[in-house]
Amino acid sequence: MTVLVCAFFGLLGLVVGSFLNVVVWRVPRGESVVHPPSACPRCGHAIRPWDNVPVVSWLVLRGRCRDCSAPISARYPLVEAGTGLAFALTTWWNGVDWALPAFLYLAAVSVALTLIDLDVRRLPDAIVLPSYPVALVLLTLASLNPGGAPDWGALLRAVIGGAAMFAAYFVMLIVYPRGMGFGDVKLSGVLGLYLGWVGWGALVVGWFAAFLLGGVFSVGLLLTRRAGRKSSVPFGPWMLAGAWIGLVLGAGIASSYLSLL
Fold it and tell me: pLDDT by residue (tens digit) across 46-82?
């Protein structure tokens, strides 16, 4: 994988990240992500196209509105740069093939849902539910693998993985409803599709890693007294982080574990 190819998809990620800033702000509020155009929340002036270049415009404007000098949060360029880095790393890890669009979509959704869950403690249906058909279409394309040998077994694993994850989380919700929300259950099915498509090892490791990371984080909050036993901690970010661990490292971890047995 050449540096230029990763850089190209990294630049694409910068553009996507700029759009995700809009998604993260508007979707939880039930607003359209396409209309009206972005504007300064203080003076109401529409943001000019040349002031909307990812990262660069924020640096040129020194983090302030051109019209009223109101401060622009550093979160905007950080989200853009973070999404660009995520796209570049995803391309480097997966390579350029028919599966790449599926994983780039997951990378974008991961950024948006993580930030929204941290902000409002919610995983919006407007993002999670459409991810089911999108993921299925993109993973079907990856399994079809035009120009190469199809892998329908991977698609079957994806469907089984998605159903299994959804069922497992749904049972946990019924048994311990304070431990998670139904938004987590709905997201689990999407992540199960991806993890199952990659392999059974990825599915198991991705599922386990989410609870391990979430548990360690919660214990850390308790020990530092930044949260109590009844505090609500968003679980969506840990589900997404655990899923990526499963996708990238799951096969190797599962193989190493089985070799010990």
Answer: 888 888 899 999 999 888 988 888 898 999 999 999 9
- Read off the pTM: 0.94
- For residues 72-82, one letter each, b for 16 or more C-beta atoms within 10 angstroms of the residue's C-beta and e for the rest, the string is beeebbebbbb
Contact residues for 127 (Cβ-Cβ < 8 A; gap 6+): 23, 27, 109, 112, 113, 116
Residue 196's closest CA among 156, 168, 249? 156
Which residue blocks in 72-99 are alpha helix, DSSP H? 75-94
Which residues lie below 8 Å from residue 245, measured CB to CB, with a gap of 6+? 205, 206, 209, 213
> How far, in Å, are 47, 107, 138, 247 from residue 196 at the CA level?
42, 17, 14, 9
**Residue 25, number of CB atoms within 10 A of its CB:** 17
Collapsing DSSP to helix, strand or coil, 167 comes out as helix
CA distance 49 to 128: 30
Average pLDDT of the chain, as a whole number: 92
Q: Which DSSP string do the residues of 126-153 spell out, in sequence order?
A: HHHHHHHHHHHHHHHHHHH-TTS---HH
DSSP for 11-39, written as a single string: HHHHHHHHHHHHHHHHGGGT--SSSSPPB
Going from the C-alpha of 101 to that of each of 96, 138, 140, 249, the distances in angstroms are: 9, 7, 11, 20
DSSP letter (8 states) at residue 47: P
| Cα 242 from Cα 246, distance rounded (Å) | 6
Q: Which of 175 and 180 is assigned the larger pLDDT?
A: 175
Give the Cα separation of 186 and 153 in Å (integer).
24
**Cβ neighbours of residue 173 under 8 Å, at least 6 residues apart?**
179, 180, 181, 182, 184, 185
